[in-house]
Amino acid sequence: MAALRSRVVGWAARRYLAWRSRRGLDPVTLLPDHALMPLRRDGLDPVPALREAREDNPVRHFPLPFGVTAWLITGHEEARAVLGRTRGLSNDFGHLVGQAGVTDGQNPGGLGFTDPPEHTRLRRLLTPEFTFRRLARLGPRITEIVEGRLDAMEELAAAGAPVDLVRDFATPIPSLTICELLGIPYDERDEFQALSTARFDLFGGAGAVFDNISGSLQYLRGVVERQRVEPGEGLLGQLIREHGDELDTDELAELADGLLTGGLETSASMLALGAMVLLRDPDSFALVRDEPDAVHGFVEELLRYLTVVQIAFPRFATEDMTLGGVEISKGDGLLVSLSAADRDPRLVSDPETFDPRRPPTPHLAFGHGIHRCIGAELARMELRTAYPALLRRFPHLHLADDAGTLDDQPFRKTSIVYGVDALPVALR
To answer: What are phi and psi of 137, to 5 degrees?
Structure first.
């Protein structure tokens, strides 16, 4: 009877969400404030409620609408245990379909929403392209991209035009880099970037998020089909040449979609928010500008401190288990708050303080376990190249005089990938 009731409630919830979406109503408005709490911040810091949740119980019941049973994981040790566990937990998108009522054809696939053995097969195909040796060939190109953006910023300033670090620096660098990696034409980036950004912003509504997934996949299927005829020099062309018979068009589009959205929005947010850290902390500014080797420690601490991907891919229990002394039932959802876990005092002392000289920590900014971000080293390359170049070219960089304070900037309100939408600056 309980199982039947759950199915009926789920069916009714899905029908209601679909009805609201068709009428242009935002399904997110159905969520109580506490359900959005893991996606909220005070400036650069997770909201105090996340810290309080961790102190109360790092594995905490997290009730959601329509009878969905979920648990919020806020402790670092517990988060690593969930992310590192392969038995009894699933990332399969089908579980989310059952919860959100997503129609067929909108499955983003790729690595994040796939379980072994399919996940193992796909990751094995991609891993050789993300070794340090393979990525090293992109190093000179990343340097050219960064320098090109700095030149463009200088030209804007010389013409008396406003300079926005998000628009003119933080977004184009990873966009160009990931398009270079995949072999996607850069002149097509604007439309896809908009789809990538929108899928992470829950104020657009659940229906819009999944519509954007469908739109980006449709675009990438066209790219794949063109490259099957004439494979390019990027990763897509390489996969088609070496594994074209093993991967169909949908699989290739899903892999590309995961890499492009994962590598674009996250790195763009890191570059912009990291610049805010530098603007508010003159000591870090001078350190990164003047000491070439300091950027490595700075970037690692920045990754921990900001943790822009606020929650990991949702996981679902496929069997009863115990986590942190709490009984988890089969079918329950687990939401891992990466931002809370990386501010856990069990990970580092004084976790709320940004310390660029702190020894590297086993942070979770890139996740952990089999779903750890495959592009982590590429992201590090971008950050380590971009920050020193920015500060050495513009050693007097500061917030634009008419932009108010750093706290006044347009931070995203409820986004899985946290960020800021604009950062106006003066170069001199």
So the answer is: -65, -20
C-alpha 134, offset from chain centre: 23
Does the CA dihedral 178-184-189-193 come out positive or negative? Answer: negative
Record the pTM: 0.85
Which stretch of DSSP H or E encloses residue 72?
strand 70-73
Task: Return d(Cα 151, Cα 156) in angstroms, integer.
Answer: 9
The per-type count for the chain, helices as H runs and strands as E runs, is 18, 12
Helix 93-100 vs helix 2-22: crossing angle, to nearest 10: 80
DSSP state letters, 124-149: HHHGGGGSHHHHHTTHHHHHHHHHHH
Token pair belonging to 114? 């796939």
**Lookup: tokens for 390:** 């920015």
DSSP 312: P
Mean pLDDT of 81-100: 76
Check residue 3 and give its pLDDT: 38
* Mean of all residue pLDDT scores within the chain: 84
Q: Could you give the C-alpha distances from 240 to 107, 131, 182, 184, 281, in angstroms and in order?
A: 22, 19, 12, 14, 47
Give the whole-angstrom CA distance, residue 212 versus residue 199. Answer: 6
- Listing from the earlier edge strand, what are the strands of the sheet with 70-73? 59-61, 70-73, 333-336, 315-317, 89-90
Nearest to 178 by CA among 133, 115, 135: 135
Strand partners, 201: 415
Distances (CA, A) of 358 to 186, 279, 313, 353, 354: 37, 19, 28, 10, 9
Cβ atoms of 82 and 72 within 8 Å: the answer is: no
| Burial class for 48, CB neighbours closer than 10 Å (0-12, 13-18, 19+) | exposed
Give pLDDT tens digits for 334-373. Answer: 999 999 999 999 999 999 999 999 999 999 999 999 999 9
Ranges 49-58, 129-138, 286-295, 413-422: which has the least confidence: 129-138
Residue 356, both tokens: 């660029």
Within 10 A of 103 (CB to CB), how many other CB atoms are there? 11
Which position has the higher pLDDT, 2 or 143?
143
Structural contact between residues 197 and 204, judged by C-beta atoms closer than 8 angstroms: no
